[in-house]
Amino acid sequence: MIIALPAPDAISPVVSLERGVLVDAVQALHEHETSTTGGELLAEIRFEGTVYRCPNTVRLNYQFYGQTWNCWARELASIYVGEGETPKLARDDWHQKFHSAFQRLYSMRPFEMSEEDARCWETILSDVDVVEYGLAKPLTVREIGCVHFLRTSYPSQMHWIDGRKESFSLHQVPDELAGCKPGQWVEAIVEREPQTGRLLRVVHVQRISSPLPESPSNVRAAWEAMRTAELIEADWDWSGTSGS
Questions:
Q1: Are 128 and 48 spatial neighbours (Cβ–Cβ below 8 Å)?
Q2: Which domain holds residue 68?
Q3: How do residues 106-141 score in pLDDT, each as one tens digit?
Q4: Which site among 77, 103, 113, 230 is 20 to 30 Å from 29 CA-CA?
Q5: Alpha-carbon distance 187 to 181, whole Å?
Q6: Of the residues 125, 148, 173, which one is the last residue of a structural domain?
Q7: CATH number of the structural domain spanning residue 181
Q8: All residues at 6 or more sequence positions from 193 whose CB lies less than 8 Å from its CB, including other chains
Q9: Are 23 and 99 in a shared domain?
């Protein structure tokens, strides 16, 4: 037996079947907007910190079939169906399947897609604002910089190798950077706002030695400390008649 339901958090977990007949009625307590047949309207699809805006809204529906709850969006039903022992698990499964498929297809060029991939991507394009997603997606870049303390007793500013100076909060950086001493050089993976370049967070850092050339005095000292090469004493005769 199939029954359409509202959002998962509103569904009673107790459902018993007897001879294929639904005995205990499922109570809908969900307060969000739903249709007369049940469902959940989404203006955007969220997965962790990633947001996919849906200009025309997407409706999630829930069904109990056999021993499994199914969750699907009517607009994307031919592609993704979430499954789980509870409506919430089915909803989570649907979100993970959508997120994984979107990221895989988004990174592909048209000639890299199979016919099925192209069909799925066209369906996504009709319901998700891919242009807005691209504009809002943080830029991930690799940068090299030197850690500085700016009127604090902990790292608070980075002097990037290209000359930029950028202040940051320890809330934006990993533990490894928080433990750096002043003057420590690091290679960092950084996320930035795509439109302004504003620092969002430092994802990872690797401590490195200074990439800058030594000072002239240090270079001279190193040169003078080098051992002088001694050539073997011999009579070198370059007047040979080779080839004549």
A1: no
A2: 4-125
A3: 999 999 999 999 989 998 998 899 999 988 888 999
A4: 77
A5: 15
A6: 125
A7: 2.40.50.140
A8: 138, 139, 200
A9: yes
